Structure prediction request, 224 residues.
Amino acid sequence: GEDVEQSLFLSVREGDSSVINCTYTDSSSTYLYWYKQEPGAGLQLLTYIFSNMDMKQDQRLTVLLNKKDKHLSLRIADTQTGDSAIYFCAEIPYTGKLIFGQGTTLQVKP
Amino acid sequence: ETGVTQTPRHLVMGMTNKKSLKCEQHLGHNAMYWYKQSAKKPLELMFVYNFKEQTENNSVPSRFSPECPNSSHLFLHLHTLQPEDSALYLCASSQARDSGYEQYFGPGTRLTVT
Prediction:
């Protein structure tokens, strides 16, 4: 079946690193995504990774993929208060349908 | 305007009302989507249109009726809704309805059914 799981809440202090974890079930997924949703806004694509990669870095963001364990993580270095938002992990399996996790609320304390 | 826009941003309607949500994309995409986002639940895909043809209906009740007159516009017509239909309704678009194409989301319409 298709299922994406995330922890619901993460709290960090400004300047620390944040790590948001995600597990997925469909090994046919060729792309895995991280979306960010700020209060009152739609989802914004942050980054994505191809399933044949194990790491992708984009400025403060690092995505790690463990395909064997079907585990995806998003690391945000030097977390800022502006990073406070809900972060969604998503996969696209062979069906072509984007499957989202429940979202992780990131709270950044000054 | 750029990106994906949705109107209205907020809507309050009674259970006997009829209203419509509008989505417009200015990205030249060919696929458009309606999602429902309820509190503490994953986003639920409702409908998919690819080149103006509906390709997916995820067992959505008939009180929700989509319309896609062209590749740039998508509507969601609402009638006799229930309080449990209160949610954020998100529209998205992508180059095509195939795996790997990024979906771009609008800001959503916050719907409250009283």
Observations:
- The mean pLDDT of chain B is 90.
- The radius of gyration of chain B is 13 Å.
- DSSP finds no helices and eleven strands in chain B.
- The longest strand of chain B covers residues 18-25.
